[in-house]
Amino acid sequence: MLGKKGRAMRGNRDRPNTGRRMFLKGAGLTLTGVGLSSLFPTPFIHHAMAGPTSNKRLLYIFLRGGNDAVNTVIPHGDPDYNTTNRPTLYIAPEVAIDLNGFASLHPSLSDLMDVYNAGDLAVVHRVGYPEMTRSHFDGQVIWENGDPTNPLLFEGWLQRYIHEHLADGFGRFPAVGSPNSGVLVTGEQTYKIDVANPDNFDYGAYAGSPKRDKYRAGWRAQYEQLSLNGLYRSILSETEIKLQDAIDEYATWDQANWHPQDPVSADYLYPVDATTDPGGIWPDNSRAFFKNLKVCALSLLESDGLSPNGTRVAGAQFGGFDTHETQDESGFHGSLLAALGYGIRSLYLVLSGQANEPRGYPSIWDDTVIATMSEFGRTSIENGSKGTDHGNATVIFAAGGSINGGVYNADAGSWEPGALFGDEGRDLSEVTDYRAVFWEILRDHMGAEPLAADAIFPGYSLLGLTEPGIVGV
Amino acid sequence: MFTGWEVCKKTVADRDDPLAPCIDPIFGGEGRWTSNFNAANHDSGQKVLFAGTLYETIITDTTANPDEGFNDVQIALDAIVAHPSTPEFICWKLLRRFITDEPTQQMVDAVVAEWNLTGGDLREVTRAVLSAENLLDPDIVGEKIKSPQEHVLSAYRAMRGNTQIAQPFFLAYANLYNWMARMGHLPYNRVEPDGYPEKAPPWLGTNQFLDRQDYGMFAAADPFAYGTNITQMVADYGLDTAEKIVDFFAEVLLGGAITLAERARAIEYLNKDEFGNETPYDDARVRDTVGFLLGHAQFMER
């Protein structure tokens, strides 16, 4: 029975060139499925056909709201960083953590020093792209879709990376996001699993009853046979099927009963409740962030190349960085940074096999890169509300066994006078393009085929960008 | 420009004056929640809009007269309204809100024409957006995915949901609130100031599916906790066979867009128990079948 929503009459309508099709045309190389690979005997395709050779992982943390890079990695060597420009937000060198005699970490980031001292943390300052937008919405999409010319493109560069390298041993769940993967792993195909509520990633209705199997099987059949004649039908269909597969796989990870501890202090590395955070040190938003990171860590630890989930990309979101008002009162920005620092250190201990945990996961630290991002930095001058407004360049932390640790773009040699106001006399100017950072990670760490650069970051080979050199080759 | 604006309670007489003093929200007597301009929190420096273009607008420094900073917003809005890109932008936004995530240039042009004809009369512009051509074109139906809030509330209405008949009465409200919170879509609660996404992809993760389907099954199956009333609908419409029940709810919930295979599956769902045995259906299984239909893709489409 076809009613008013029937699709039989549907015609082809021209749409704006905002979708994937535009890339396909430009790149001329993109696989639509592994089966087509033999039609394109290029080096890139040979690579794609080579089979499961890579077990590299990427874990990204998106700091939503625009992180104040200037107070995160403080350019104490620049005399413009002073109490005139930042009357209440200024952090003195004595309380900050010196990195290289020029730049210092916010005192709340002290947990990062274990990773930094191990030589596994790259601090890349002044990252952005030409004519950065000050809109949260556009800025976040641009960082995620990899194309500053098109903030309307809801297709992520990681989505395209996965798509281009599907034959390289990816399993059923190439990407896991908690609470979600954002636009980074969004596109016409469903490669991601989003775990919004780590404690509750399962159907709850009639839990434990055969009635649950009944509706699950019914929905699976409906979505497997779904007519794809509609704008979002293929996404709807793929998402449901992935969801049902993922629920079963996720249950085997049993995250609720996994509590890795610091090998020295015995502190819980994921303080998510009264048991694991007995002193009540961490606020609710930090606890939620840790729980999301725990899911991300498990998804990568459970993917050992033989695992059917084959997760290579994990992503967490952390919000609240839009610090327009009272940025440092009650340690507002500091609290967020403290959670970020502790979270990265916990990942370091857990992924490198140093944590005290009963399952004995082997180290995957050398196979993993953790990278942060944020849509923009903030104004170099404090505003009237004891906060900072939307600015320009921001900072990226990248950690992992293959990372060349150190400070990039924030030393006396690279930080020119006036840099703090180098963008429109207002904000920190950018030196390194975010696409150069992430393409370097994809190519040199994740094993992306060099010829895929333009398919992943549109027009990349013509941009002439300088990569920072953070990944050891 | 917008710094310094906040919400507070003022006396009824002062409600339209952004510079009037706030009153205590509890002990301050009768009043209204309204906007307030707090000059101490305003960035009073000079700002330049559309810098370097024909439409450059300078908002002057108000440091010497802090209260004048509240004019910044008016100046900015006037400049934005006067910018030639504004009609197309607004028309495109309205089309994307009501009709499709991907409006064509042709659709936008038609609405912009109405804007130009009426000098930007938003009532007439909206009428053009909601034209029969846009609303009834079979190519365009289903090009919007319901937001979580729309999903929760449309399912609730379709099941004759009434928070007042839930037991206890506040339970349904709490349940609906919790589902919207889980799906990340509580009204006016977006953490970042960019607003909730208008396009579908951010709302189409695996977890969204899980919550949407789970919610439908819970709300249909538990009339007491949710205040839904499917049983009464079955009685009111004389739905005395499995076929009539499925056809009725397929029309109500899915706009009738159900394939023969989907219809057969739903009828079987109603006629068989959870062990696959054909047994006479009862009220509970009717409710479960409605929950099952709510998990279909067609219900996620608007």
Would you kindly provide a brief summary of this structure?
The complex is a heterodimer of chains A (473) and B (302). By secondary structure, chain A is α/β, with parallel strands linked by helices. Chain A has helices spanning 20-27, 43-49, 69-72, 113-117, 136-145, 157-164, 210-224, 233-253, 284-301, 332-351, 434-445, 453-456, 460-463; strands at 57-63, 73-75, 97-98, 103-105, 121-128, 175-178, 192-194, 313-318, 368-373, 394-399, 406-408, 432-433.
Describe this protein's structure.
The complex is a heterodimer of chains A (473) and B (302). Chain A is of the alpha/beta class. In chain A, 29% of the residues lie in helices and 11% in strands. Chain A is built from 13 helices and 12 strands. In chain A, strands 1, 5, 6, 7, 8, 9, 10, 11 and 12 form a 9-stranded mixed beta sheet that branches. A 3-stranded antiparallel beta sheet of chain A has the order 2-4-3. In chain A, helix 7 (210-224) runs antiparallel to helix 8 and helix 9 (284-301) runs parallel beside helix 10 (332-351). Mean pLDDT of chain A is 87; it is low at 1-53. Chain B is mainly α. Chain B has 3 domains: 5-82, no CATH class; 86-136; 148-300, no CATH class. Chain B contains 14 helices and 4 strands. In chain B, a hairpin with a 7-residue loop joins strand 3 (47-49) and strand 4. In chain B, helix 6 (148-158) packs parallel to helix 8. The two termini of chain B are 37 Å apart. The interface between A and B is large, with 78 and 68 residues.
